Amino acid sequence: MDCIDLRSDTVTHPTDAMRDAMASAQVGDDVYGEDPTVLQLQELAAELTGKQAGLFVASGTMGNVVATLVHTGRGDEVICGSQSHLYLNEQGAMAALSGVQARPLREQPDGTLALNEIEDSIRIEDDHHPVTRLVAIENTHNLCGAVPLTAAYTHAVGELVRRQGIRLHLDGARLFNAAVSLNTSASDLAAPAHSVCICLSKGLSAPVGSVLCGSSDFIRAARRARKVLGGGMRQAGVLAAAGIVALTTMVEQLGKDHDNAKVLARMLSSVPGVVLDDNAATTNMVYFHLDDRIPHHVSEVSGALKKEGVLLDVVSNRGFRAVTHHGVSKEMVVSAVAVLSDVLERKNSC
Questions:
Q1: How many percent of the chain have pLDDT more than 70?
Q2: ∠311-341-271 over CA atoms, to 5°?
């Protein structure tokens, strides 16, 4: 039985064009800087994000870790969101690998960090305190409903950090989703950031990889940091070829995912026992939870859905995440909601 997999946009498969490009890719040793396909991908990513240079890395987590290593020193502090990927989902890499401490701030409902709270959290010069070196923001913000952060907000953060003499890193794992949703360019959204990491293997459907972009000096330092993390991938052009196809053919497809998420949210809102969370379907994610009319744990509901061929991401003891992507059509969305509605009806009647 074919599954309707709504757990994440990371489950996307490479397109036929990507597979063809991978099979015919020109390669060289990227650690020596000699892989022509990797070089082409890095130049393309830098151009699209408005930066001087790019660095192909194995994952978004690696990109964020590399950026933190370059921007900070041991004992420094990073201001970030308490629900951010950088803080919650990277195994404490800021402390474990960079030797820096996080200063998490609670996100606003729209995924932003309040500007006055950022400014108030920047340490004064005091021998007792760590030194604030970096602010990190996430666009789109996954755990806030994949809400896109506007260019106006990011520019305001950029102005704040420049005034304070610190750095801004943008975790742009789904930056192109934000750009499509806001009808703007990725370069405008990333312009104020000293570094930005974009992911190729989520909605853009490439099988592997992210690209970290910034100034030429930043990327030179980032190459060293990537190496010590084990990120020298040698003939990586085979993977980079898929990334080039992703950036040149898949960005415009993201709008379809957003449209399907809106269909999903609209249909879910009419299912008894289902409550949409904030920011549902602002891009390609719909967070929702079960109300008190459903006395069953989400694991039971998830198990029943799986038997019917529908996969959802369980995020809490009452909550789910559903993510639309290139592998999910409108018809599949409609079918998934019908299955969920049937499962909940059966559960209620037991």
A1: 99
A2: 115
